Amino acid sequence: MAPFTTLWIALQVLTLTSTVSTTQLPVVGPGHFEVTFTEFSLTDTNRLDPFAKDGRPRSIMASAYSPSPACQNKRQAPYMPPATAAFQDDKFAVYGLPNGTLKSLTMGTCDKVTKSNSCSPKGFPLVFFSGALGTSRLLYNSMCQSIAAGGYIVVSLDHPYDADIVEFPDGTIITAANISSDADIELAVATRADDIAFVYRQLGNTSLTDKFFPGYPHRNRLYNTAIVGHSLGGAAAAAAMLQIPSLRGGVNLDGTMFGPVVTKGFDRPFLLLGHENKTQNTDPSWKATWPKLTRWKKEFEVKGAAHYSFSDLPLITSALGLQEHLPAEVEQVLGRLEGHRMMDITVTYVTAFLDFLLKSGSEKKLQQASRDFAEVVQVA
Fold it and tell me: Which ranges of the sequence are coiled-coil (predicted)?
């Protein structure tokens, strides 16, 4: 798991650009639905926040990306809310990112939907997403939107004190705690799994789904749910699989495994997608967990990818016209694949797995992806 500070150092190169204009990030991959975007917070009054140290209950911030079969109106939405964008701009400006870059990014979303009978009776499947340690969920906005465009409701979580910054609707800001020791990391993974389980239960409440997923005649059924995570979020995805038996399967994007899942495993489908040289041969946690995964499983390696290739960052640098000017040092964290191409690989493999798991039961799209992307090698 690469330290995010390494990424900051690499981004010194972005002094190449001094002016910023509004840039809309594209939807990438095979999906064809327009997507609505909402944000919400939930508080678990039955659980204290283990990182707050002041007796407060655990609160979680989330984004929901919902496919819209009947979009009436489109709009450009800010990529990040103001305080978060300012924080990220300041953070990266120290290393040369042009001032206002994150504030300038937008997403094309569906602003208004009408009821439609084009959905299946079971509704769209639900997918949870959890990102890397020290990384805002919002740095995966384009990825989550692109997965949702494939016909999935995607709920992306920020885990307070774990993410670098979490901005709540009431203006509350929580910045990252020092999570560095093995004990801290294992606590963070366990806390994330608890967060996911709590939100999963809350999404069984129709009043909540009516509020945040309007316009659909059929609500999502929780039994048709999977989970995807990047880095520490990949470890949390596996931990949540162990904790929530009704999750049907999961994806770990480049994350070292932590906690009981390494020795216990589980009996549902799981996909490992790693950057170049991130395999069972180089990650002992993957090697230890692999035999404990007793159902369908596959492992792929993406040649030319690095740890933060599995985020929006390569797409952002590409959309801003910066990527081909980056020096070799940046490849250590963002990889050497062009940003649109890398996002297409990630979204295509994730949605192909989700289609197999939650829709068709067929591996044809995974097989086609292997023909389309020579950069991806099946390891196991």
Answer: none
